[in-house]
Write the structure tokens for this entry.
Amino acid sequence: MTGTPQVRPEPFDQLRTAPVDGRASTGSAGMSPTSATSAPLIVGIESSCDETGVGIVRGHELLANEVASSVELHVRFGGVVPEVASRAHLEAMVPTLQRACATADIDLSEIDGVAVTAGPGLMGALVVGLASAKALAYALHKPLYGVNHLVGHVAVDLLEHGPLPESCVALLVSGGHTSLLEVRCIADDIVELGSTIDDAAGEAYDKVARVLGLPYPGGPYIDKAATGNPDYVRFPRGLTARKDLERHRFDFSFSGLKTAVARWVEARQRDGLDIPLADVAASFQEAVCDVLSAKAMDACAATGATDLLIGGGVAANGRLRTLLAKRAAECGISLRTPRPNLCTDNGAMIAVLGAEIVAAGGKPSALDIGADSSLPVSTVLL
Ligand code: ADP
Ligand code: MG
């Protein structure tokens, strides 16, 4: 933040100044005078899928990270039901916010800004968080920052390992997305090098778990079950053949792998044979982690990145972390891995991204922004 004293905007002023370019023209206005001398105190609200998250940070310092998950409501459906998730967000939002304030030992009047996931995600779920954040910003006379959920998964690492180096690649692996990103500036300059052309890595975990008779969400169950031989079955590594690499060097494909596991299991069952769960889970997991880590190393080599950062729910996976650590060490790359509970969806990642945007002088969002269910990762701030 600059030291220039700012006049706090009335919320209606933000709305009135917004229409020209769709964004309030108040710059970093709205920051309290104390924030000029200390890092901004930001509340972050996350509601893109089935976690209602409220995080509070001061700059890169984590003060609170409260998450209310509705996952148990979706288990019997084998996946997230959008309408159920939206209703759960409505019920959880205020109590989660109150818990976060109590944990951080702050009064809401002290905050400098409200960051919120504006996309991508489930539209009905996003709208609950966005409406809550707007109400909070409006009532408190504080600026609003509508930010990108995917970039939040990357930014969360700042809470653990501090500022990012100049050249950094991020491997984003979640239930809905799988991408390799070149992070030039976390606040406003992200380039997508490649992404999945079908299923996301987490989606593959969830679908294969179902085939193996494990509960939803399958990632943590496969992680735990995969104690067997990773070479028991050589499952396909999508988009790694030479002809695929020409067009899809940094892209991923996991739907063929999922089908291969299903076919293998069906064939065993037809023959009346047992399914060796530990071996099949390990073999599937090895195929996913092999491809993810090989392409991540290649992306670092291609961009000259010195650091690789991982984020998203699948970044909590034990084998992925081990294999990446091994290959990164071999390639001389520093690996940044957030602790597992910061890898899955949470409000702290949104708060720290908001704090980073404020520190970089990003303009607050207008109070009339809408949620964008397919917000591209290159749009950090709406
Ligand atoms: P999204 O933002 O797309 O909802 P999250 O970032 O919350 O996704 O991550 C959820 C996904 O992460 C799920 O698909 C889940 O199975 C997967 N996941 C969580 N923990 C692990 C793990 N230990 N190993 C593999 N996958 C995991
Ligand atoms: Mg996520």
Summary: The chain has a mean pLDDT of 90. The pocket of magnesium ion (ligand 2) is lined by residues 149, 153, 174, 312, 345 (CB under 6 Å). Residues 166-339 form a domain with the Nucleotidyltransferase; domain 5 fold (CATH 3.30.420.40). The first helix runs from residue 11 to 17.
